[in-house]
Amino acid sequence: MKNYLCLLAVLFLYATASSQNSLTGNITSKNTNDPISATVYIPQLEKGTVADFDGNYTINNIPDGNYNVVFSSLGYASVSRKLSFTNRETVTENLQLQESAVEMEEVIISTPFHKLQSDNVMKVERVSTDELRASGAVTLAEGINTIAGVNIISTGTGIGKPVIRGLSSNRVLTYAQGVRLENQQFGDEHGLGINEAGIESVEVIKGPASLLYGSDALGGVLYLNPEKFALTGETQGDVSSSYFSNTLGTSTNLGIKTSGKKLKFLARGAYASFSDYKSGADYRVTNSRFNEKDFKAGVQYSGIAFKSTLRYNYNRSNIGIPEEIGVQSRSKDLELPFQEIDNHILSIENTLFFNNSSLDVKAGYLFNDRREFEDEPDVAALRLKLNTFNYDLKYHLPQLGNFETIVGVQGMFQNNKNEGEEILIPDAKTTDVGVLATSHYHLEKVDLQAGVRLDSRKINSEAAGSPMDQDYIEALDKSFTSFTAALGAKMDLVEKFSVRINLASGFRAPNLAELTSEGVHEGTNRYERGNSSLTNEQNFQADLALEYRNEHIEFFANGFYNAVNNYIYLAPTNEIINNTPVYNYLQDNAALYGGEFGFHLHPHPLDWLHLESSFETVTGKLDDNGYLPLSPANSVRNTFRVEFADGNARKASSAFITLENTFDQNNVSIFETRTAGYSLVSAGVESSFTLNKILLKVGLNGTNLTNKQYVSHLSRFKLDNILNMGRSINVNLKVEI
């Protein structure tokens, strides 16, 4: 602790002695020359301002260095400029923004060079939680299902696991508060454990991101961006509430944030409660009810050359475990069996800015306490405690010509402990360490990015049970290493038309469940037998993305081929133990291929009109020609949307109608059944009003408006012929001060 305080003192002295620079300028419309009250933001510093009605802006206290500055405004294409600051100078940047179909483009945080998506070498999908909420999503997991190429494995409405291009569970890594989320995510019945309150946006990397994040990012990354702090000198508060007719559910959250010149603070609390959901056949799915409490807080110190952010998140989820259609009830009180899960996330992020470079130091402590109650509401039959400490150090080297380079080291220390009568996985310790280097090369019409990484994972588990018992688990001492690399290019072949090509390798070390399981997994109704001889999954993916955009229309076409060596999967045997079918963990080479295609029509001067359409497809096969399990069906999503910005008492209004067509899923594994296709209709309206300094947002939306009776191929209730949710009419209300 003494050494840490000394380090902070040195950093403070350095910060106070550093140069202070300023950025100023004027922003106008390229079409009309009128001034624009645009947002000006420096992502790496988390500093920003809003231009006044004449388009003028100023940002002070900028440390020496090179930074991306993002200019954005509703109805205009966002612009990123790389600007240099040194020797207490004032930099002037006047800019004209072009009207565009792509509005308010945001900086992508999950990739290392802080680029706008239009400048990024790697294709990343981004959606705000406001958009997800307006679509009628009950939970964050359900909301990301609207992103092309992303699906969820669902257990009712309370549990959803992300699926990216056919890969899920430990093949998809989730990041929250800038640190990797660890919460026993290997099981299909284990949800995210994150509430959407206090989450500003979701970013999805579709494809191997092991170069950036290590093991478990073989299939992709779900990156959850926490809400930003208020701008300097501002204090804000808001309260919002939603009602969902299908589950008689309510969700409420309250937040406040305030910022001075150097110190910023925010806090947010949320509570949600839902009864059993009603299917399209008008029966309620017994014990699919759940409730959730969530609290988030953050404090940030921002000096001239030093920035430190501390965040904390506590989440308590109580989730019913449905077993059969039984007593029909609207009660929200949990019945046996149910899960009770606590998630704690404490993270700290420090950035030190030098004259031409910077150092990022992130650390996170996570505690997951998972309890399952089966026969008694006060005695947990299964209790798993997972303690995780992870760290991430990245040094942004001085820019050398057109080269930007980052080197870093990442790691994790993890301890899993059982405290219940049942043992799902043994007590174990896991240690990760990885080193990486990645570089970006920028030319006028070509951007190149490449990198390499070396990782090592060590797993030590204790023996569990008696050697005389059938479910005895032997002690394990295993090490896994892997080398990964990535190479990508973005090329602007002609004006407004770009091509991205990315080649990347990834890996995933087998998890504890796959290596050591020996017993009944109650949540899945399987007797699972692990395989201690499993080796790394190693993959190579080629990704091609084509994009054309102008002020009226945007087209995109993304295709991929993903070859996975030693793919780990569960296969049924002919054995029955304790009246439960036995499944073994096996390995075989596999391949997945497909893509996403779509367009967005936004004709000017009809700024209020939007027509969006997307198609997604993925096929996964093993080398023996069998199909991979839990592969999402092909689907088409069409949305007609109108938006009006009045600028008076009614600030903005919007309305949408969406038709989602999911096709038959006939490409199933040998132990799955086919799933019929279906079509779902949703619609909604939203308006915002201002009264003095109070902003009121009111929204009304409906999902599955035709009350369609259907079952998703990725629903874990499919085996029991339990339908998905029927019609729901939802009301949203938000007040901002």
From TrEMBL:
The keyword Transport applies. Keywords: Cell outer membrane, Membrane, Receptor, Signal, TonB box, Transmembrane, Transmembrane beta strand, Transport. Residues 1-17 form the signal peptide. One of its GO terms (biological process) is siderophore transmembrane transport. Residues 241-705 form the TonB-dependent receptor-like beta-barrel domain. Its main location: membrane. It is a multi-pass membrane protein. One of its GO terms (cellular component) is cell outer membrane. GO terms for molecular function: siderophore uptake transmembrane transporter activity. InterPro entries: Beta-barrel_TonB (IPR000531), Beta-barrel_TonB_sf (IPR036942), CarboxyPept-like_regulatory (IPR008969), Plug_dom (IPR012910), Plug_dom_sf (IPR037066), TonB-dep_rcpt-like (IPR039426). It comes from the Bacteria. Residues 120-221 form the TonB-dependent receptor plug domain. It is found in: Cell outer membrane. Belongs to the TonB-dependent receptor family. This is TonB-dependent receptor. It comes from Aequorivita flava.
